[in-house]
Write a structure and sequence with these properties.
Serine Threonine Protein Phosphatase 5, Tetratricopeptide repeat, 26 helices, mainly alpha
């Protein structure tokens, strides 16, 4: 569905919705968030699709959710679920916008769900927290409400608060699988591998016939450096569903880490050949790009992202095209080509400004461009411009209270301080930056090394080198550099 078709459909739905509000019925178990639909058949289809999405089988959920909205074209939650499964970003916005248009026709609980999701799309965590907190207060006996709030905290890297919400969800329904999966990741990010393993094994116990529990446990093993065992669990996931894309990517990541990059790329090309849609093709291409970057072949990584861009261009998928241009800029920056990188960032910004996306989404891209321009200025040695961009970005994200972007702001200030050899300031900034970006750990090592503290430099360099991030371009950029630096200090 093209953008202009989507816009027309939204307008028709909004007008017709006023006439049909009286036909909608809310179905809900006692204490649970109601589900508003005029059709029992649509509800049945939606619940089937929702269960598949709970277990991260998004592709399989598509047919049920598409049929649900075909049966009931005013089914807001079905459109919301469908948006999550769409294989392209433009497809996501098409269906998400319909859910937004229908928000006033549904129950208060559903309104809070949709508004919370909208706040996430708009990079407004303050609003999202407010909506989801109200949701849990209104529906304290709904495990999904607590899981949504937990996912919000998780996304802001507030893992202890996330764990508390997931524990609430489990207390409501100990047989509900999703919070166990998220608990495993929250404990993992806190470095608590024992509790992470416990959560993932319970997740496997609950749904042994689904691939994602094995995939999640395989990722923990990957993080711990148990690469052979990780591959075994990824293969167990694929034995359940041979099309489970994440497990193909996970196996390729393990192969990269043990130095078998060619095998990793062969695996990902096989994934590309078996892909069911362009979303899966993009996942394969991106994995190949990461493998090339990890192998030190940045020019080939750049060529792969260009292939992604062509796929998006063929689908008129403007958000994906803009994102691919930013990825190209990042690779060019890593290649020491800041002027070419800036050209890609500028082109991305032009696409976003000319799009029909929501103002909040475009504004978020504009903030990202300020940050990227600052990184380019650092790479060019133009530290005055870099400082101007850093201050501009900092003021914008602090005014909006966006934690992840505030951490990003600290990262940019840290880059400037590192370039100026102000190592104490650099350390302070990088410690407040995103600790899930392994490049920041490597930069801490560089700052300690600059101070002459080789013991701390080795400690942080080892953490960076052994970060073992899944399919992560930033990690691919610095993994070999961290290992080489570690070897030179020993």
């Amino acid at each position: 569905m093209r953008k202009n078709e989507s816009g027309t459909r939204v307008m028709v739905l909004m007008m017709a919705c006023v006439l049909l509000l009286g036909l909608a019925a809310a179905s809900a178990e006692e204490g649970k968030i109601p589900i508003t639909t005029s059709s029992e058949k649509a509800l049945e289809l939606y619940l089937q699709g929702r269960e598949l999405q709970d277990n991260l089988r998004l592709q399989e959920s598509l047919r049920y959710l598409r049929e649900a909205v075909s049966v009931d074209p005013f089914f807001a939650l079905a459109y919301l679920g469908l948006s999550r499964a769409e294989p392209t970003v433009s497809g996501f916005f098409d269906t998400y916008n319909i859910a937004r248009a229908l928000v006033d026709s549904v129950s208060k609980g559903e309104q809070l769900m949709i508004r919370g999701f909208e706040a996430g799309v708009n990079s407004d965590p303050v609003k999202q927290r407010g909506f989801y907190s109200k949701l849990t207060a209104r529906f304290p006996k709904d495990e999904r409400a607590h899981t949504l709030l937990g996912n919000h905290y998780f996304g802001q890297q507030e893992y202890q608060l996330a764990i508390r919400s997931y524990d609430h969800a489990i207390a409501v329904d100990p047989q509900f699988p999703p919070p166990y999966n998220q608990l495993g990741y929250a404990h993992r990010f806190l470095g608590d591998y024992a509790n992470s393993e416990t959560a993932f094994k319970k997740y496997i116990e609950l749904i042994p016939d689904d691939p994602n529990p094995y995939d999640s446990y395989a990722e923990l093993l990957l993080k711990m450096g148990n690469f052979d065992q990780s591959i075994e669990y990824y293969q167990r996931a694929l034995a359940v569903s041979s099309h489970f894309v994440a497990s193909h990517v996970g196996i390729a990541t393990n192969l990269n880490f043990i130095g078998k990059h060619a095998q990793a790329r062969t695996r990902l090309r096989e994934l590309y050949d078996m892909a069911r849609n362009d979303g899966e093709r993009r996942a394969a291409i991106f994995g190949i790009a990461v493998s090339y970057a990890d192998d030190g072949e940045l020019d080939k990584a750049l060529q792969e992202i260009d292939k992604q861009y062509i796929l998006a261009e063929n689908n008129d998928d403007t958000p994906s095209m803009a994102g691919d241009l930013v990825l190209m800029g990042n690779i060019l920056l890593e290649m020491g080509k800041p002027d070419e990188a800036l050209m890609k960032y500028d082109k991305s910004m032009k696409l976003m400004k000319g799009s029909e996306l929501a103002k909040e989404v475009i504004d978020n891209a504009i903030r990202g461009h300020v940050y990227n321009s600052g990184c380019v200025a650092v790479a060019k040695g133009d530290l005055e411009t870099a400082k101007e961009k850093a201050v501009e970005y900092e003021e914008q994200v602090k005014a909006l209270q966006i934690p992840l972007q505030i951490r990003r702001s600290h990262g940019l200030h840290g880059l400037i301080a590192l370039a100026e050899e102000n190592y104490d300031i650099a350390l302070d900034e990088f410690r407040q930056a995103n600790q899930q970006n392994p490049y920041n750990l490597y930069r801490v090592a560089l700052a300690f090394h600059g101070k002459g503290n080789n013991e701390k430099a080795q400690e942080w360099c080892r953490m960076a080198a052994d970060f073992n991030a899944l399919n992560n371009l930033n990690y691919a950029f610095m993994r070999k550099k961290a290992r080489d630096m570690l070897g030179s200090m020993q």
